[in-house]
Amino acid sequence: MSNVRLATGGTWKTDTKEWRPKGGRGFYEKQRRPIWRLVPVCVLIAVAVASLTIKRREPKHKAPKLHHLAPPIADQLVRATLDLQAGADARLVLTNLLSEEDRSYVNETPTDMRGRAKGRMSAADRALVLALLSRPGGSYHPGKVRGVRRTGRSIVKKNCLVFGLPGDGKRWTDAGHRLVFLDHREDAVRAARDEGLNAYVVRYASAPKSSWEASPYATDPKKLIIDAPSYDFRDEAHIFWDLVIVDGPDSVQKDSSGRAAPVARAAEIVRRQAASHPDRRVDVLVHDAHRSHELELGLAYLSPLAAFANYRSLRASRAPNSTSEVRFAWFARAPP
User: Which residue windows are transmembrane per the record (predicted)?
Assistant: First the structure.
C-alpha cells in the first residue's frame, strides 16, 4: 500500500484487488470534471459586475442631449407666428411681446358683449400692429437718435405705409416711426395733418363696389391706378417699407372703390423689395379680412408672395357667433 493511499484513507477490496478511496467511487471522477462547465457561471458573474458598474457611472438626473431637441426660436415674433398658425388666441399671444405701456393701451379698447371693438380696431389687431412696430430691426434711422431703449430691447424705427386713416395712427407716429398715410377723403386728410400726421390725398381708379361681379379681384392695370396729387410715389419706390397696412378706402358702401388698388400696390411693394432686399422682412396687414371681399383680395394678390401668418385665427373670427377679435389678414414675407 502506498503512502498516498494511507494518507487519503480508504479500504482495500481483496476480491477485486482494488483500492477504494474515502469518499466513494466517484471521488477521482469529480476531481477530473471538464473546465467548459464553468463557462456559464463566469459569464453570469461578468454580466452582474458590468451592470453594477454602469449604474454607478450614470448620474441620477441625466440632462437631455441637445442635438435631439429642436433649436430654440430666438425671434419672439416668429414664435408668435407659429403659435397663431397653431390656433392660439391672437390677443394673448401678441400682448406677450408688448411693453407694459402697450398692454395697458390695448386693454383700453371698448368692446361689446361679443368681444368686438366699438368703432376702433380690436385689441388683437392693435396688439398685432404694436408687436410688428416693436420687433427688433427696421429701416428708419432718426436723425438724432438711431434707436431707443424699451423693455430691455434696442428698437430701430420702422417705415410704415398706411392706406386709410386708422384711429391709432397718432399713437404709431408718436412712437417715433416714420408713417405715411394715404386716404381719399380730403377733409379727413386735412384733419389728420392738423394732428401732426404725415397724411396725403389719393384717388383710386378702381370700379365702385356696386359694379363688382363675383370677385373684387381685378387684373386690368387701369383699374389699379392710384393717383396721388399731393404725394410723389417716386419717393415710395426708394423707401424700404417694413410694414404696409391696408385699412382703406371703406369697402362697405356700394359706391366705394374698394381695396383692390391698395392691396395690389402692397403686393407690388412686396415683390419689388423681395427682389432688391431678399434678406429683409416685410409684413402686410389687410384689415377687415373677416369679410369675404377683403379676404379674397389678400389671398389673390399677396398669398403668392408672402406667408399667410394668422390664417387659423382669422378663420376662427369668420365662424358664426364667433367672439374672436381678429380682423387683420397678416401676410409675412420673411428672409429665406
Answer: 35-54
The β-bridge partners of 284 are 244, 331
Q: Which residue has the higher pLDDT, 280 or 144?
A: 280
| Mean predicted lDDT score pLDDT of the chain | 78
70 within some domain: no
pTM for this model (two decimals): 0.72
Instruction: Collapse the DSSP code of 118 into the 3-class scheme (helix H, G, I; strand E, B; otherwise coil) and give the result.
Output: coil
Query: 137 with 75: CB under 8 angstroms?
Result: no
User: Is 67 domain-assigned?
Assistant: no
Same domain, yes or no: 142 and 244: yes
Render pLDDT for 98-130 as a digit per residue (tens, 0 to 9): 888 888 888 776 665 555 555 568 888 999 999
Burial 163-195 (b: 16+ CB within 10 A, else e): bbbbebbeebbebbbbbbbbbbbeebbeebeee
The answer to whether residue 215 sits within a structural domain is: yes
Which residue in 146, 198, 153, 143 sits closest to 172, CA to CA? 198
Distances from the Cα of 100 to the Cα of 79, 83, 109, 326, angstroms: 20, 21, 15, 21
The count of residues in the chain is 336
Domain span at residue 23?
A: 3-57
